[in-house]
UniProtKB/TrEMBL annotation:
The keyword Nuclease does not apply. Homodimer. Part of the 2-oxoglutarate dehydrogenase (OGDH) complex composed of E1 (2-oxoglutarate dehydrogenase), E2 (dihydrolipoamide succinyltransferase) and E3 (dihydrolipoamide dehydrogenase); the complex contains multiple copies of the three enzymatic components (E1, E2 and E3). Its EC number is 1.2.4.2. Residues 1-28 are annotated as: Disordered. Keywords: Oxidoreductase, Thiamine pyrophosphate. It comes from Qipengyuania qiaonensis. Residues 17-26 have a biased composition (Polar residues). CDD domains: TPP_E1_OGDC_like. Residues 587-778 form the Transketolase-like pyrimidine-binding domain. This is 2-oxoglutarate dehydrogenase E1 component.
Length: 943
């Protein structure tokens, strides 16, 4: 389609540039709400009003005596109260429901008689410039108020505390030249867009009878409105738009907004793959897929991408925001937030019902998560799947949740495509000026059921009786344009026929269509690939660093600026750290981590870490941020390093939203090490949708690689059910097809190497790390300086800390994580010289080959034991059982199956009693070593 067919929007004049950051960077929620027409409209003080009326009367030559002035002042006060009420509550009387089923009586306080003007329509009142009037009759004022605030667009904005933002919206809404106005050419283009939306859905319904498409039928006004966002956004500096939406109307947006070729979508409808046959992956249903494309308006090119998503409603929202933030960073747009625009399209029931919506709204003004405002478009079908609004929410509108961040809300009638387009035009202008979220709530209807095979009259018979006889949007709009003389009769029918012919040609072309390349490793991902072999691809990655860099990082991590007064305990930590670098021994977990971060930054990578307490670390171990004890200014040592960037953020108290945000960030930027840290590992439960649908399956479903790292504190130290287990078993159950990596690491140096390995390979896979708690300061969990240098690298398995000759080993105890040190200490106390303890540091992809090599050297091995702290139905046992047996068989130990030593099956992850925990822990360690041990809920299958 040429640009001419979309050139339906009037030209913009010069616009005020965007502010530096959001206007509410330091929000004052108690700010006084002041109207903008004139100072007198704020306080409505009678004395000041009388003075204002007298001055205005004198200026216009009106002769008013003192009594008349007093009456006129009283009239003005009542008139201004009426104006204010319409600004606050006029939307409640707006004409929003296309079906006319939502009974919206005019609130009493919006009636003239309520304000003492009953029967006084001809009375002239002074309003000080409101709507451009100095003096106006009551009837004319009332007419203008009704037309402005109670038409097909209802504006909610008086909950906003920032005066400048309210004035902007008020002026745009109340100034005649800024209201809904389009040229004849623009109106014809709007009609063409609506027809494309309608005919596309009708064509799919005819060609693929009974096939789910989750059509936009009834909400087609969204198509020209979204094109307005592209056009006006481009004029105001937007160069990239990132969309997220559920399935309703998705195929229509893909085709008619994103420009995905119709023949490709028809190919997918017929069962064809979206990618070449040799790419692999599971694929996904067509209404979950994304795409990327470019659209040009008025010579301005805007890149657009639609993020793929599952059926979990609103789950894609934080992913879009994280990806937008990353793209803003890549474009050096984090100060202005001008070039990259996130747009989220919602269903009404989901926007009101899904908590992730609020989590994402909450990001809008938070450092490290702000994207400079998101444009939210609610497709308000006035129904969920089968649930009516009164049973789905407790508020008048689905959009009411957005008031929590003082976002303006534009309610609009979906049968008026000009009004919907105007709302989007105003929304993008507001966003570009103020860098704030804004919501368009388009009231429409769902012409068919939840999907095209569903029968909606089971539950909403009256609504669907009305829908059956309700004319299409294009029919209503075409008649309106005919009445205005913009088009002639039959014009719309011609557009329908012309577009349907085009679809028929595309349908025919779909039969021979074959995708020739996958949308996989382009743009910033150029140079990345899919590993040909999971086993060999993870070997021989050079992750060690030179001594010169090692020593330089040591100075950075231990030098306190002269103007910084640090906490005395932090001083002791830094002294100990300085001793590590001086002696070359005793490097702990936090120091190894800082060395990994610092070395990557120095090599030009970005490092981004977020979580609820990531700056200090949940266990006071990290201290990435040093806080001055006198004035609280912050110093972050790693930000002083050259070449790359380091960011650490204490996130909002969210798992689902923040993890999704970081996944989206990592989706956009493979050149940054992006990490999310849970306060305790089991808190990842709150983000399970992101883990299941995106992290574990995103690459297989959508060909979207991702290098996100999850840091999940895990380990049994008697802290109870909620602070012991990161649910390792759940991650292992998700492992297949080389999709993710799962590690339970015991050595600071090994942690250092796995983080560096994550960035130094030419592919990206999500990395799940069971991070320690007690091991953060455990005397045995230390590394020497040499382990970070030379030819050292990540070890998927780690041998015993005691040098036991292989030919003496009769009992091999395999384990993962912290229990290894308990086993070693007890083994050495018991002076057992035929028991070797080997740690599996990477559980998936399972290191079967190196484990087999290790076992093969133990010529006199009699028994293999798997020991774990977790209950038998948790942890790694059911995952590693057969894999260990396969490794033993490969080592020539056919028939040697591992046996289990650990806690019994349990419904709760851990006991809540410290004393019971200790008894259990000692027993399972003894049993694993072949010593006598007994405790309730501990067992061994070993003989």
């Amino acid at each position: 389609m040429g640009n001419e067919s979309h050139d339906f929007l009037p030209e913009l004049g010069d616009q005020e540039g965007p502010q530096q950051g959001p206007s509410w960077g330091n929000p004052n929620w108690l700010a006084e709400v002041v109207d903008s027409a004139a100072d007198l409209t704020a306080a409505l003080d009678p004395t000041q009003m009388r003075l204002a009326v007298a001055q205005a009367a004198k200026k216009t030559g009106k002769a008013l005596d003192p009594k008349a002035i007093e009456q006129a002042a009283d009239d003005s006060i009542r008139a201004m109260l009426l104006v204010r009420l319409y600004r606050v509550r006029g939307h409640l009387a707006a004409n929003l429901d296309p079906l006319g089923l939502s009974h919206r009586d005019v609130p009493e306080d919006l009636l003239l008689e309520r304000h003492g003007f009953d029967g006084q329509e001809e009375r002239e009142v002074y309003v000080g410039g409101v709507f451009g009037f100095e003096w106006v009759t009551v009837g004319e004022l009332y007419r203008v108020l009704r037309e402005t605030y109670c038409g097909n667009v209802g504006l909610e904005y008086m909950h906003i505390s920032d005066t400048e933002e309210r004035r902007f919206l008020q002026d745009k809404f109340e100034t005649p030249e800024d209201t809904i106005q389009f040229t004849d050419e623009g109106k014809r283009a709007i009609l063409a867009s609506v027809i494309r939306g309608e005919q596309y859905e009708a064509f799919l319904g005819k060609k693929y009878v009974g096939t789910k498409r989750f059509g936009l039928d009834g909400g087609e006004s969204m198509i020209p409105a979204l094109e307005a966002v592209i056009k006006y956004g481009g004029q105001l500096g937007v160069r990239e738009i990132i969309y997220g939406m559920a399935h309703r109307g998705r195929l229509n947006v893909l085709a008619n907004v994103m420009g995905k070729p119709y023949k490709v979508i028809f190919h997918e409808f017929s069962g064809g793959s979206a990618n070449p046959d040799d790419v692999g992956g599971s694929g996904d249903v067509k209404y979950h897929l994304g795409t990327s494309t470019d659209r040009e308006f008025d010579g301005i090119n805007v890149h657009m991408s639609l993020v793929p998503n599952p059926s979990h409603l609103e789950a894609v929202n934080p992913v879009v925001l994280g990806k937008s933030r990353a793209q803003q960073a890549i474009r050096d747009d984090l100060k202005q937030h001008e070039q990259v625009l996130p747009v989220l399209l919602h269903g009404d029931a989901a926007f009101a019902g899904q908590g992730i919506v609020w989590e994402c709204l909450g990001f809008s003004g938070v450092r490290g998560y702000n994207t400079g405002g998101c444009l939210h478009f609610v497709i308000n079908n006035q129904i969920g799947f089968t649930t009516s609004p009164q049973f789905a929410r407790s508020s008048p509108y689905p959009s009411d949740v957005a008031k929590g961040v003082q976002a303006p809300i534009l309610h609009v009638n979906g049968d008026d495509p000009e009004a919907v387009t105007f709302a989007c035009k105003l929304a993008i202008e507001y966003r570009q000026v103020f860098g704030r979220d804004i919501v368009i709530d388009m009231w429409c209807y769902r012409r068919f059921g939840h999907n095209e095979g569903d029968e909606p009259k089971f539950t909403q018979p009256l609504m669907y009786d009305e829908i059956r006889q309700h004319p299409k949007v294009s029919t209503i709009y075409a008649k309106r344009l005919e009445a205005e003389g913009v088009i002639e009769k039959g014009y719309a029918d011609g557009l329908c026929a012309e577009f349907t012919d085009h679809l028929e040609r595309e349908f025919a072309a779909a039969k021979d269509y074959k995708p020739d390349q996958a949308d996989w490793f382009g743009g910033r991902w150029a140079g990345m690939n899919k590993p040909a072999d999971p086993e060999t691809a993870r070997r021989n990655v050079e992750t060690a660093i030179e001594k010169k860099l090692f020593d330089s990082l040591g100075r950075t991590l231990t030098t306190v600026p002269d103007d910084l007064t640090i906490h005395k305990t932090l001083g002791r930590v830094l002294t100990a750290k300085d001793e590590m670098f001086s002696s070359g021994t005793g490097f702990d977990w936090a120091t190894a981590e800082a060395l990994a971060f610092g070395s990557l930054v120095t090599e030009g990578f970005g490092v981004r870490l977020s979580g609820q307490d990531s700056g200090r670390g949940t266990f006071s171990q990290r201290h990435a941020v040093w806080v001055d004890q006198k004035d609280e200014h912050k110093y972050i040592p790693l930000t002083t390093l050259p070449h790359g960037s380091f960011e650490v953020y204490d996130s909002p108290l969210s798992e689902y939203g923040v993890l999704g945000f970081e996944y989206g960030f990592a989706m956009a930027d493979p050149k940054s090490l992006v990490m999310w840290e849970a306060q305790f590992g089991d808190f990842a439960n709150g983000a399970q949708i992101m883990i299941d649908q995106f992290i574990a399956a995103g690459e297989a479903k959508w060909l979207r690689a991702n290098g996100l790292v999850l840091l999940l504190p895990h380990g049994y130290e008697g802290q109870g059910p909620e602070h012991s287990s990161a649910r390792l078993e759940r991650f292992l159950q998700l492992c297949a097809n080389d999709n993710i990596q799962v590690c339970n690491i015991t050595s600071p140096a090994n942690y250092f190497h796995v983080l560096r390995r994550q960035m130094l390979r030419n592919f990206r896979k999500p990395l799940i790390i069971m991070t320690p708690k007690s091991l953060l300061r455990h005397p045995l969990a230390k590394s020497d300086a040499a382990e970070f240098q030379g030819d050292n690298h990540f070890m998927r398995i780690k041998s015993d800390m005691k040098d036991i000759p292989d030919d003496k080993v009769k009992r091999l105890v395999l384990c993962s994580g912290k229990v290894a040190y308990d086993l070693m200490q007890r083994r050495d106390e018991a002076e057992l010289d035929d028991v070797s303890i080997v740690r599996i540091e990477q559980l998936y992809p399972f290191p079967g080959e190196p484990l087999a090599v290790r076992i093969e050297r133990m010529k006199n091995l009699e028994q293999i034991v798997w020991c774990q702290e977790e209950p038998k139905n948790n942890g790694a046992w059911f995952f590693v059982d057969r894999l260990i047996e396969e490794a033993a068989e490969a080592a020539g130990k056919k028939g040697m199956r591992p046996c289990y030593a650990g806690r019994e099956v349990a419904a709760s992850p851990a006991t809540g009693y410290a004393s019971r925990h200790q008894v259990q822990q000692e027993a399972l360690v003894n049993i694993a070593l072949g010593l006598n041990g007994h405790a309730p809920n501990v067992r061994s299958d070993c003989k």
